[in-house]
Amino acid sequence: MNNSALSKWFVSREGVYYLLLALLLVVILPLVLDPFRLNMVGKYLTYAFVALGLVMCWGKAGILSLGQGVFFGLGGYCMAMFLKLEASSPENTAIQSTPGIPDFMDWNQLTELPWFWEPFHSFSFTLLAVIGVPVLLAFIIGFAMFTRRVGGVYFAIITQAIAAILTILIIGQQGFTGGINGITDLQTLNGWDIRTDEARTTLYFICVGMLFLCLFVARLVQNRKLGRILMAMNAQENRVRFSGYDVAAFKIFVFCLAAAFAGVGGAMFTLLVGFMSPSFIGIVASIEMVIFCALGGRLSILGAVYGALIVNAAKSGFSESFPELWPFAMGALFIGVVLAFPDGLAGLYRSYVMPLEDRLFRRDKDKGAPVAGTAASKPAAANENDDEPVIDNYSPEKS
Amino acid sequence: MFDGYTTSEVMSIFAMQGFAGLSLFSVFVLMALGLAIIFGQMGVINMAHGEFMILGAYTTYLTSGFFQSYLPSLFGGYFFIAMILAFLVCAALGALVEWLMIRRLYHRPLDTLLATWGLSLIMQQAYRSIFGAREVGVELPEWMLGAFNVTDLVQLPINGLFVMIIALLIAGGLYLLMYRSGYGTKVRAVVQNRPMAEAVGINSAGIDRATFALGCGIAGVAGAAFTMIGSTGPSSGQAYIVDTFLIVVFGGAQSLIGTIVSAFGISQAQSTMEFFMGGSMAKVLTLLVVVGILMLRPEGLMALKVRR
Amino acid sequence: MNAAKRKSGDFLLAVEGLTVSFDGFKAVDDLSFYLDPKEIRVIIGPNGAGKTTVLDLICGKTKASSGSIKFAGKELTRLKEHQIVHSGVGRKFQTPSVFEDLTVFENLEVSYPQGHSVMGALAFKRDRAVIEAVEEVAETIFLTDALYEPAASLSHGQKQWLEIGMLLIQKPDLLMLDEPVAGMSVAERKKTAELLRVITRDHTVLVVEHDMQFVGDIADRVTVMHQGRVLSEGSIEKVKADPKVIEVYLGH
Fold first, then answer.
1. Residue A170 falls inside a structural domain
2. What are phi and psi of C67, to 5 degrees?
3. Which residues of C touch B299 (CB under 8 A)?
4. What residue numbers bound the domain in which B121 lies?
5. Which candidate, A151, A377, A182, A156, places its Cα nearest to that of A276?
6. Is A347 within a domain?
7. What pLDDT, in 10s, does the model give residues A230-239?
8. Fewest CB within a 10 Å sphere: which of A141, A316, C175, C207?
9. Tens of pLDDT, residues B183-220
10. Overall average pLDDT of the A264-291 stretch
């Protein structure tokens, strides 16, 4: 059937997009950028994990979380706690009144390591916690809210409040958390100095690898029936429910998935940047993460990566030259992306660049009748390009 | 927790902190009322609400400066002029924002949230460019200084009392407007059944704009009141926004009384606990309790059980 | 009522003493009725009689204040919506609610009773059995030619059929249809009546409907509701002749 021919065509086109991204991240950027700049790009990419989670959670399933910084931060703090303990060996901290505990605890007159720090001596526990802690919290929040049918604006506000709570808590409990400065002065990972240029470049490549892993997980979810249910739920929640699906379970799943992505991103952030602080968790940071996703295109998996890269690069650029203009640009971006191009860059690409590509590579448009894989798009996006395929959607094969 | 305090001392601590809580309550109520009528009417959350409040505060600041320079004899009454100006300025900007932005996002409440957040960033930076990053304060007229001595231990500052009276008057006025006026009837008609309200000739778009402007105007008054008890900076509004959202949601989105009750509860809890455990933990605990209750009872304190 | 004497286990659906109130207003008030297997029952009644609410209560969309709903011996009032669906109750809504951006095929596939858990949906594969089931249902609902069209391009009547098809593919024992012919052309009504005849060969059907012509065409028995209660029950001729029914419909 032309359905499967179509899907092959799509896979190849989609494959090219992934290949181009890999080329950019693995070959081009490492070649043209010095280690310092490359490290910056790595830092931006850690936000792409969060944006990717938001594509799944907000774009596909319609659940807007304004507290993704919480999960990013939890992942980051888990990693930072491990690194901090390694940096606070009794030999390194011999001058403290209590050697062997992190310096900020010593300054705050703590005399022993709090119980919840203990397990972070173990690297395997830490790796587990980087994903496990954010997912556990997401599960609790999701279970409480979604089984009671709380969604939309309410959910957004509650998640924002949770971001506020966690920030205030971390800042207030200086002795346990390092307070507003966060956990700083991280040195080695299992004895490997993470502050050298070589280490940072290696970590950059690990970050890119993890990102591609997450991209493929997201793509798998999207292309299976699971992805179609998520989008169908967004458009016709009751029909999905009365087709026999436990809507709450699907929402909890996608929220936990987004939390897991964010947790991995946070841990990579700590490794690449060398510290973690509450400023990456709070209300402002969390809502900025939404714009990474929105700019890339809320439905586009690859868009999340470009969105995170572009917004963060622009932010650094502005902050270096015109710091006072950045909030205006950011504000305009929020308004523009919502009012003018709700499908973000992916939407623009689809309407302006794809037709060019088609002409350039003489792809027969009329060959592919109606596209089977065009899953439900947000009502917001429905007014334009309704029958155009979403960039990285392809129709599952008919066997 | 009460070790080292005598009973009468504990009681006066509660009274004083209770009063400090009441000042907070006044600002909360005014902020939340504005937010609640917009949310109740249009189902959208205005993330720039705090910035509208600050606009009202800066308007008051400018008015007080004007009176000081040109009409020093009338300085004692500037606040009333400032309050009206703050209302008008904020309501006008609110109407403009509704026309330019909100009405295009109808049926997309989450997008409205993001767009108004963008607006709040722009407004904050505008304040920073115009008024500078430093906080500014207004000079209080003489009659507002000083305090009532209720007992030897309990003193109630006049400015706090005054702000509270303003808040209660506005809440009362709003109640009358919503439940005893033609406008209020129309608002409630639109909330309950928009297509039907339109069918009987109510201009629902006009009602939307008026309600949004009214909500923003009340935020402006909140800002005017805010200058009486604290100083104003470009991002002062943001500090209140999460609390205000929670108050509105906690109170049950469409209930004015619920909004007031929850503002009272949250501000009292916060300021009483503040005395015993410090500001940040008091805030964490209050927010945690509110979020916890909302998870168990998402419809808020006073919601109608309706058929959906 | 002789029905009440029989054990409720004999019925496919036994609704007894069902009551729900919204802020003191009793939308459904101590309602009882019984459905035999393979029966077509139509609920009629004036606006606000509580007809749609009854369907809402059975499928779990609204929780009952009191009373019981026994379906094939199973108490439904304590189950969640998706569990009720899994026990064999399908519900069609008044306005067609299909997934507009999915094709007809995908709409039916999503409703196919397999892979309904999160992990199941992740592992779900489109195998022969799925394709055959989809094609079979598509033929029943007259949509074979439109199988690969997006649902958005269907006519209003076709969307109604698609939604019925989405129920059929779940192989439910009881189908509940809320005003299935509302907004349909005369030709579409005829075809829908025909469709319901086919369906009832192996399903029990509960329909809420206004169109008396259509009711007469399809119903085995009719339950007339008024102010949340059963006003009359029996064949269409019997209820049409019932003075209480005439009073309610014409008396005001």
1. yes
2. 100, 175
3. none
4. 7-296
5. A182
6. no
7. 999 998 898 9
8. A316
9. 888 888 887 778 888 888 888 888 889 999 999 999 99
10. 94
- Output the furthest CA–CA distance in chain B (Å, rounded): 67
Spell out the domain ranges in chain C: 39-66+88-250
Cα separation, B93 vs B55, in Å, equals 10
DSSP state of A363: -
Token reading at C74? 């199973």
**In this structure, is residue B249 part of a structural domain?**
yes
Nearest chain C residue (CA) to A219: C122
For C202, the token pair is: 């192996």
Single out the residue of B190, B86, B114, C48 nearest to residue A59, CA to CA: B114
CA dist., res. B292 & res. A220, Å (int): 35
Neighbours, chain B (3 or more CB pairs < 8 A): A, C
Q: Is the CB of A244 less than 8 angstroms away from the CB of C123?
A: no
Residue keyed to tokens 């303990």: A85
Query: Does a structural domain hold residue B197?
Result: yes
Tokens 């209003």 sit at which residue?
Answer: C156
Contact C91 A242 (CB under 8 A): yes
Which CATH topology does C39-66+88-250 take?
A: Rossmann fold (3.40.50)
H or E stretch at A259: helix A247-273
Which residues, 6 or more positions from C14, have their beta carbon under 8 angstroms from its beta carbon?
C8, C34, C35, C68, C69, C70, C71
Q: How many CB atoms lie within 10 A of CB C219?
A: 23
Q: Round to whole Å and give the CA distance between A273 and A285.
A: 16
User: How far from chain centre, in Å, is Cα B93?
Assistant: 17
C202 pLDDT tier (thresholds 50, 70, 90): confident
In chain A, what percentage of residues exceed pLDDT 90?
62
Distance separating alpha carbons of residues C3 and C29, to the nearest angstrom: 19
Specify the residue for token string 């009176």. B67
CA–CA gap between residue B157 and residue B159 (Å, rounded)? 6
Task: Enter the DSSP assignment of B151.
Answer: S
Per-residue pLDDT tens digits for A15-69? 888 889 999 999 999 999 999 999 999 999 999 999 999 999 999 999 999 999 9
pLDDT computed for residue B88 by the predictor: 96
Contact in structure between A161 and B246 (CB atoms under 8 Å) = yes
Residue B108 covered by a domain: yes
Give the global pTM. 0.88
pLDDT tens digit sequence for B78-131:
888 999 999 999 999 999 999 999 988 878 889 999 999 999 999 999 999 999
Mutate to test the interface with A, among B35, B130, B284, B299 (most CBs of A within 10 A): B284
The rounded distance, in Å, linking the Cα atoms of A62 and A378 is 8
CB spacing of A338 vs B290 below 8 angstroms: no
d(CA A390, CA A299): 8
Across the interface, whether the CB atoms of A241 and C82 are under 8 A apart is answered yes
Helices (H), chain B: 7-42, 49-70, 78-100, 109-131, 158-180, 182-192, 194-199, 204-229, 238-251, 256-277, 279-296
Residue A273 lies inside a defined structural domain of this protein: yes
Predicted-complex ipTM score:
0.86
**3-state class (DSSP) for residue C43:** strand
The dihedrals phi and psi of A14, each to the nearest 5 degrees, come to: -65, -40
| Amino acid in position B283 | K
Supply φ then ψ for residue C28, to 5 degrees.
-130, 130
Domain interval for residue A300: 38-325
Three-class SS state of A11: helix
Closest by Cα among C241, A146, A338, A161 to B249: A161
Instruction: Tell me, yes or no, whether A7 lies in a domain.
Output: no
